[in-house]
Amino acid sequence: MSTLVQERRSTSPLRAVKRFLRSPKGYLLLVLGLVTVVASLGEGVSRVEPNLLGAMLAAAVTDLAIVRKTRGVWIFPSGAILTGLIVALVLSPEEPLYAAIGTVVLAIASKYIFRTRWSNIFNPAAFGLVLAVFLFGSGESWWGSLADLPVIFVVVLMGAGLLVASHVNKVPLALTFLATYFALFTASAFLGDPSRVAEVFRSPDANAALFFAFFMLDDPPTCPVQYLDQVMYGIIVAVVSYAAYLTIGGEYYLLAGVLAGNAWEALRRADEQSSRAAGAA
After folding, report:
1. C-alpha dihedral over 217, 221, 225, 227, to 10 degrees?
2. How far is residue 65's CA from residue 176's CA, in Å, rounded to a whole number?
3. How many domains does the chain divide into?
4. Quick check: is 16 in a domain?
5. What is the value of pTM for the model shown?
6. What is the mean pLDDT of the chain?
7. Rounded Cα distance, 22 and 1, in Å
8. Is 75 part of any domain?
């Protein structure tokens, strides 16, 4: 009888929720949810609500449908909800609902189209947001980075971001990216035309870089685990983002950087797997 009681307790809904909130996805949803509440109050709840709810719902339904069709099982689409939330926090609230929904559908689909044996290759939110620029002409305001709130809220954003990065053990990655990113733009300001890069150091661009580093760049399935690899990954993303800003302007330069980093990480993992297979043989 005691064993049966213990089994029931171990599978109770409350324990399941606690386990989920301790997981990387659950922890990120919790922290990012709190950031969303603060950002929504500053932006206007009625203004952001349609795309926010629409994106999260569309992402969940898309993921459920794909998994049911391909695996024949039902899952709780926590990763998809997180993707929908991030997409909504980056897209401008002025974008039509169909653009938000279309973006998350593309994002979720990319997880199953571009993948290796171990995980998806690209950060889904970043992939969908880049496609949205070309397919829907979507604009990005990064309102979830608290850019429209007083500057003191940068402390809130950084505190929440560091909590997430620490929980998923990606602090070296985030800090390396930020240090390299701002160092490159600082060098450009001193060695070239400061007005060309001045926006990077102001809101909303500076806030966007912080949000990107702490809530998108450290996506566990698509970034490295080892610290040395994290440092290299952060440098690559920063350099590509910097180069993209100077060539294509301030549209999706951060997203281009993370997609390049994702591709590098996928190649690094493939080479690592090949080396292990050769060694075993």
Report:
1. -10
2. 38
3. 1
4. yes
5. 0.91
6. 91
7. 29
8. yes
